[in-house]
């Protein structure tokens, strides 16, 4: 462990116990990340009564968070590649936790909007830097499973956000919901300071000598990443994947209610339960299977991600096009299960195709791109098409995006296999 908080004093890979302890802390932080992000979602009626929020104003709370989140990520990515990685993570957790707590004492919409935007600053540090740190805590052959564990917190945290926001507001007040969501992060921020921070690339080289310091500034580093066809193609596939998954997350409860005639409460609850179960099982299974297949192919992460995503495309179509419940319900479950299976492997693939000295920057740029071209525009675009035609037709853009993602990742796997022979 570091000699003092935030000081990367390790000169070799940490012990297995220390690595798993760090994974536990980072997974808990990631869970809280998504809980804090979605705790506001069930609070519209309370905020409308307290502040007179319109639907449009309420609808700006998540985009405000996302815009700041994307802008802050490259800054933290550069920091994570040049200095301590535990300090910016701890700072980020502390900032978003304080911002969530402050959300509970706001009196006006501008104050609440500002507080929710600041949450994005803090969360960007975790998303940009944590994957790079984990790459130096665990060997390359097991990274899909490591990132699968980290990403299992996403559906669970998002679901807990709905539960915490709704239940605490119902039994106490909307202000208490923000207090309950924000307070645990202060403890996790302190825990993050004591995480091990081994030398960059320690798990990727046989010798113990540290790699040369990267002299490039942030502009040169990000420009270099943008010029790499394989990296950019994988990210483009990830953006198409995020477009489809984000569209499903935003519109599926409304689709089930308005197109399939399921009662409002049941539509949201049923889909939420599907997301939690398929997210947990699919993410874990995908990471384990991809690591197993890595024994047979160096490009197993990309092959696996492409295949399971391609298989999910027709299932997503039947989930949205079939009117019979006995068809669309199993299709929803199967499609979600397959989609979540690629989250760990594709994260590991991105980490593995860039240098250890630029992994935080690559993570930041990936996050910026997949949200900018993925789940930021997809809910709006589906709504726009629905206004012009119907929601039943608009959602059919989702399986198209999923199909494109799978094809791109398979193309990347083929190109990478041609450039470097399989092991």
How is this structure best described in words?
The protein is mainly α and 423 residues long. The chain folds into 2 domains: 16-193, MFS general substrate transporter like domains (Growth Hormone, Chain: A, Up-down Bundle), CATH 1.20.1250.20; 218-419, Growth Hormone, Chain: A. 77% of the residues lie in helices and 0% in strands. The protein is built from 18 helices and no strands. The chain has helices spanning 16-38, 44-51, 55-59, 61-82, 86-103, 109-135, 143-171, 174-193, 218-226, 229-258, 264-293, 300-321, 325-341, 343-352, 359-375, 377-388, 391-394, 397-419. Helix 11 crosses helix 13 (325-341). The longest helix is centred in the middle third of the chain and has 30 residues, at 229-258. The model is unreliable at 1-9 (pLDDT under 50).
User: Average pLDDT across residues?
Assistant: 85
Strand tally, please?
0
| Uncertain segments | 1-9
CATH-derived architecture of the largest domain: Up-down Bundle
- Count the domains: 2
Q: What percentage of the residues does DSSP assign to strands (E)?
A: under 5%
Write the layout of secondary structure elements.
Layout: H1 16-38, H2 44-51, H3 55-59, H4 61-82, H5 86-103, H6 109-135, H7 143-171, H8 174-193, H9 218-226, H10 229-258, H11 264-293, H12 300-321, H13 325-341, H14 343-352, H15 359-375, H16 377-388, H17 391-394, H18 397-419
List keywords for this structure.
single chain; 423 residues; mainly alpha; Growth Hormone, Chain: A; 18 helices; 77% helix; globular; disordered N terminus
């Amino acid at each position: 462990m570091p000699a003092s908080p935030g000081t990367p004093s390790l000169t070799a890979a940490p012990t297995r116990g220390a690595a798993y302890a760090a994974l536990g802390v980072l997974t808990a932080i990631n869970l809280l990340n998504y809980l804090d992000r979605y705790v506001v979602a069930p609070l519209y009626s309370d905020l409308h009564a307290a502040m007179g929020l319109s639907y449009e104003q309420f609808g700006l709370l998540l985009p405000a968070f996302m815009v700041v989140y994307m802008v802050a990520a490259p800054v933290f990515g550069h920091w994570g590649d040049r200095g301590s990685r535990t300090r910016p993570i701890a700072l980020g957790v502390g900032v978003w936790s304080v911002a969530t707590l402050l959300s509970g004492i706001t009196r006006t919409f501008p104050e609440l909007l500002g507080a929710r935007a600041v949450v994005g600053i803090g969360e960007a540090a975790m998303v940009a830097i944590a994957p790079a740190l984990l790459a130096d805590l665990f060997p390359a052959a097991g990274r899909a499973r490591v990132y699968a564990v980290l990403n299992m917190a996403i559906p669970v945290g998002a679901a807990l956000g709905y539960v915490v926001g709704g239940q605490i507001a119902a039994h106490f007040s909307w202000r208490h919901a923000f207090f309950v969501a924000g307070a645990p992060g202060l403890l996790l921020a302190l825990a993050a300071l004591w995480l091990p921070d081994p030398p960059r690339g320690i798990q990727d080289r046989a010798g113990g000598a540290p790699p040369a310091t990267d002299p490039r500034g942030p502009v040169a580093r990000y420009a270099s990443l943008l010029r790499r066809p394989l990296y950019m193609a994988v990210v483009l596939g990830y953006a198409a994947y995020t477009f489809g998954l984000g569209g499903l997350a935003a519109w599926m409860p409304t689709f089930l209610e308005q197109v399939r005639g399921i009662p409002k409460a049941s539509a949201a609850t049923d889909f939420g339960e599907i997301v939690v179960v398929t997210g947990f099982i699919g993410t874990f299974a995908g990471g384990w299977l991809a690591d197993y297949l890595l024994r047979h192919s160096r490009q197993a992460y990309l092959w696996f991600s492409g295949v399971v995503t391609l298989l999910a495309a027709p299932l997503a179509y039947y989930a949205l096009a079939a009117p019979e419940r006995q068809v669309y319900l199993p299709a929803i479950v199967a499609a979600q299960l397959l989609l979540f299976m690629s989250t760990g492997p594709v994260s590991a693939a991105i980490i593995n195709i860039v240098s250890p000295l630029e992994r935080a920057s690559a993570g930041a740029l990936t996050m910026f791109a997949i949200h900018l071209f993925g789940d930021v525009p997809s809910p709006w675009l589906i709504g726009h098409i629905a206004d012009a035609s119907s929601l039943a037709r608009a959602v059919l853009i989702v399986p198209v995006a999923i199909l494109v993602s799978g094809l791109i990742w398979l193309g990347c796997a083929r190109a990478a296999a041609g450039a470097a022979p399989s092991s």
